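Dear all,

This email documents one entry for the complex benchmark we are building for the journal club exercise. For each entry we list the sequence lines for every component of the assembly. Then comes the predicted three-dimensional structure of the complex as a token string, followed by one or two observations. Please use this as the template for your own entries, and keep the labels exactly as they appear.
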Amino acid sequence: MMKLRVAGLKQYFGGLKAVDTVSLDAKQSEILAIIGPNGAGKTTVINAITGLRKPTAGTVWLGDKTITGLAANRIAELGIARTFQNIELFEHASVLDNIQLGFYRHRKVTLCAELFNLPSARAEAVNARLAAEKILHYLDLVSWRDKAVSGLSYGIRKQVELGRALCSAPSFLILDEPASGLTREETLDLGYFLRDLAKNRGIGILMIEHDMGLVSRVADHVIAMNEGRILAKGSAPEVQSNADVIECYLGSEMV
Amino acid sequence: MYFDFKTSYNDDIRLIRRPLSGLFYAIAFGTALFSPLVISEFYITESSAIFVLGIIIIGYMISAGMAGLVGLGHAAFVGVGAYTHAILLGAGVPFLISIFSAIAVCALLGVMLAVISLRLSGLYLAISTLIFALAVEHILGSWETLTGGYEGILVPDPIIFGTSFASSINYYYLTLSALVSVIILAANLMRSLSGRALIGLRDSEQAAASLGINVLKTKSVAFALSGAVTGFGGALMSHQIFFITPEAFNMMLSLQIVLAAVIGGLGSITGALIGAVVIGWMPELISQIKALLPVSIRYQPGPDLVIYGAVLIGFVLFEPLGLYGRWKKIENWLLTFPLDRKATFAKTRTYMKSERV
Ligand SMILES: Nc1ncnc2c1ncn2[C@@H]1O[C@H](COP(=O)(O)OP(=O)(O)OP(=O)(O)O)[C@@H](O)[C@H]1O
Ligand SMILES: [Mg+2]
């Protein structure tokens, strides 16, 4: 069982300590949730893990391999997939094309084979399509297959982004507020998918989430952050009853 | 009403997906193949010119339409392709070797441009490609020992394995087969994962990177392919000009390439071809319009640019998807006929995006 480990992670923007000495362990088959108020540094942590920004200090391991500071595409190739807080889809492509691109890290053929449509390229196109179809069926997106992403509702777009990440068959899946903007029903469905992905497919999930209902339903472990630091770690009820966490959220509607 | 029946994923990957479009391509190809037997010499020459333009614009479409790297300097690739080919032919290099060398040189030039503009996008990229083209034009003009400077050089006749393709009808078939090969390669690219990666790059670099796409490498590939195809067009074009000078590859040509892509519709091969036809006939059209103008301004160099500019602005404003986009809307309406679905192409709300990830 592989682990995704982060130790002593710091990310400074000038004088602002957006992330200050954060350590965490995510395991395959488990769901780790990060909660915390706006500006706590949650997104900054996962940007550092996924290589979008080099951390100021700290180490990230995938299994026993150090991946700190690798380029984002290298980290994706190693099997860490992610979604974005503001949905980053390929707007002018169809749902199918978006999801198929998730398969990119498994691409083996050369550009030349693709240009001349050699049998190897055709076989790979079929493989990419098969992988995407499985995801379309799994997430119940079949009826949207050929629609352009730009015209879809917010909830569907979130699903497509999740599907694209899943199509890369990752060992770790990192989600930035997957339930924000979803309706109650959509959130319930999402919870079901997340449990299934972790428990039955062995994917390790690290998710940032504000919806405490969802977090307590699905998360095995919870980390609460504030001002770049970790306030509390533990199971959902433990973290929710932690005095520091309650104080941090006092007056806000989130608890 | 039309129903799409598919029985395997291969059906979707095939180039020709519907029996009807197969028929259409067959008719188009048949017409192209046999029309030289009936049309006059003038139209044969004119058609070859359009085929070459088609190649050039498909080349531009690969970087601008697919990868979203909208450049304003593709005349540079046309020029370097033409000059490399002409110089090598002049030195006695056989046609095929010469033309593949021209393609290779332009691919390298594309990589160079990619390296120069590695982290630029949007307006800054457009400006850097513009300057790049000006620099290339200048080099072509001042490297006199190689290029003959502003006096130009003569382009030897195209002779492949002893057969001359200089006659208008032979040249017609040469350019037609070149165009068909380029179309097939571009279509293969568009349905491959690499082609989709270019589209990914265009719409979100961050998301592309998070899927394992090497953004800088893919950009270089886009420019290299684009440069190679455009340079190929340039090499063929040199045989139409006979005597090439650097001015043949100036801003005006770059503008025409952009204009053709926008008129046809950025991002599709069909669009590029439609654009080539329109731009190919534009000089004719412009001379007709000019005939209506008062004599005092008729012979000034200004009106051409103004007309090109006006057409470009008109399309960007009123038909941003180009003529091919308009056709797609009509086709969609026909296929779904009794069910009118206005909403399909309605402008949709775009969700707010912020710079932060
Ligand atoms: N690129 C950047 N440059 C400067 N400051 C930044 C940058 N990115 C984030 N910050 C700052 O770092 C802090 C943490 O931001 P971050 O986006 O990680 O918060 P978050 O916990 O994800 O909040 P939210 O719940 O609003 O998404 C904020 O104060 C933010 O303004
Ligand atoms: Mg955030």
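Observations: Strands of chain B lie at 153-154, 159-160, 163-164, 243-244. Residues 140 and 147 of chain B are 6 Å apart (CA to CA).
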